[in-house]
Amino acid sequence: MGLTKLYQTYYAVDLDHVGESWGGNTYTKLLVTEYPDDAIESTASTQSADVTFLYPTIVANVYYLDGIAEGYITLQNCHASNTATVTSYTVALKKTEDVPSAETTLGSYTQSISTDNTIAAVTGELRLPVYMNISHQKVTENEKLLLNITYVSTGGTVYVKHELDSSDPDIKIKVPYLPQG
Q: Please, what is the average pLDDT of the chain?
């Protein structure tokens, strides 16, 4: 009989008044399993081609990630008049101890795109899929999860969107867990 996988869905948000210190960094960008109240002060997007979210809670003393993590990310063009073109993106799930520069990649998904990859000016969006293979990766009680998003774009002003809106999540990823063993 095979092991039954459990799945946890995470959403990415940026809470203005939270400062989770871990691994030498302070994170306001967090992974949550449920959206906090929409009235909490938050930042809707980040203008950076490299954005990382921390899951601030320890899941268990020891657990394993194994299977396909799937979901999507949303990029937004905030330029007043120029369209933007996204040529590639990478989404990586990492773990890290409470030590600077101690990140280990558990799985990643990289995609080059050449069609349907433009984002209209002002508030156009591009939602991109993620299908990340994770092969029996151990995580301990001394480690926390990180979700890292990077992309390459030209033209426009591209942001990673992470608005605090539970009715239309901008970043969503479902992660496969195995019980200890």
A: 93
